[in-house]
Task: structure prediction
Amino acid sequence: PPVESPQSKRRERVPMRQLQEEYRKLYVQLMGRGKIEVLGINTYQGRNSQSTNGCTVISALVASRHLSSSNTCIADSSVEDVIDRQCGPLLREIRSKLGLGDHALIIPSDVHDHLVDKNLLDQKYFEGAAGGNVMDPKHIGEFLKLLHVGDDGKGARRKAAATFFFHEHVISIVKTPTSSGGAFYDLIDSLPNLNVNGRSKATRTRCADIDALAALLQWFTSRKFSDSNCSHIDRNAWD
Result:
């Protein structure tokens, strides 16, 4: 299981802005050591208008394809196919069923139910769910444990995948075991967060191990907090 960082242990005494900076520094350090690597995917959510606000469908389909593929990690070409071709018709179906307008946001549970009904997501893949305060080491630790070893604690050598819903956006995290007995983890984000030679791309951020993923998630989540968010977090305890 991941080791709690000193910053996490001191959470109740450390202002959120300071934590943001500590998480950023750790992220940069791990990138410099090759523990975290950001890779581009040759499309993104919204490049095709039919995929706009489709992250809930995209993330679930990416997780499903990863789990149903061979022993390798889901390929970029499969992610591109999900974003550019598969998600659009499904988004129309789900929004129509729910009485939502074009480009309306959809909550993950509605998407998962629809994909299960359409046999695009197998119920046997569901291992568990974790939620709560993403800045709380206990809550995020429960999520990482499910990915790392599974609900039964025996899944270290099994592939795994998850959707991660935070700040009105959903991403995929996929785990691929290695021949050495470890595993690497990819955070796949369909938004155009990378620009290469003027071309916008979705991203696959590869983490060499579960500790690197824990550090990435600390930075990925905390950097989304505005100054007013940080002030609110510092003034109020999680209920």
Q: What stands out?
A: The first helix runs from residue 6 to 9. The CA atoms of residues 30 and 36 lie 6 Å apart. The helical segments are 6-9, 16-32, 55-68, 76-98, 108-117, 137-149, 210-222, 227-235.
